[in-house]
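Saturday, quiet lab. Running sequence design on the structure tokens for the scaffold JK sent over.
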């Protein structure tokens, strides 16, 4: 229908004429209460923001000569972080002559990843970057 006729109908019903698809030929319009529509849209966006969870990255630092009790403590911390829905960055810092033995760091990382396997998935495997070896763990997705 012509624009003037649609506008008259909208004014008669005390509503607004809103373009739904302006790029279409002819443009598609709808008669509605635009203020109410905007209010409901803002309400939906606010509800969506309230329900979303921001994923933080927590860091757990291991050392090359870590003992079993310290290892288990770090494992418990990692489990707590993963259960709360955060990602975990596991890092080993090589100091001095430790740089000559990166394979020992790889072994510790593999052992840590294997221990975390029941509650976490390896997002990025262990990789040597400069003086530190970094691995990322993420919560397991239940599919």
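Result came back. Writing it out in full:
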């Amino acid at each position: 229908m012509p624009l003037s006729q649609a506008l008259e109908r909208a004014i008669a019903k005390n509503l607004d004429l809103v373009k739904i698809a302006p790029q279409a030929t002819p443009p598609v319009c709808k008669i509605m209460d635009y203020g109410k529509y905007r209010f409901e849209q803002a309400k939906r966006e606010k509800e969506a923001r309230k329900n979303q969870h921001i994923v933080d990255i927590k860091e757990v630092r291991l050392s090359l000569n870590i003992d079993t009790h310290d290892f288990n403590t770090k494992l418990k911390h990692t489990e707590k972080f993963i259960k709360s829905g955060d990602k975990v960055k596991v890092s080993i810092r090589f100091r001095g002559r430790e740089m000559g033995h990166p394979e020992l760091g790889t072994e510790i990382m593999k052992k840590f990843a294997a221990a975390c396997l029941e509650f976490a998935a390896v997002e990025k495997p262990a990789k040597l970057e400069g003086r530190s070896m970094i691995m990322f763990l993420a919560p397991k997705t239940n599919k």
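Notes for JK: The first strand starts at residue 16 and ends at 21. The two ends are 50 Å apart (CA to CA). Ask whether to fix the surface positions before the next round.
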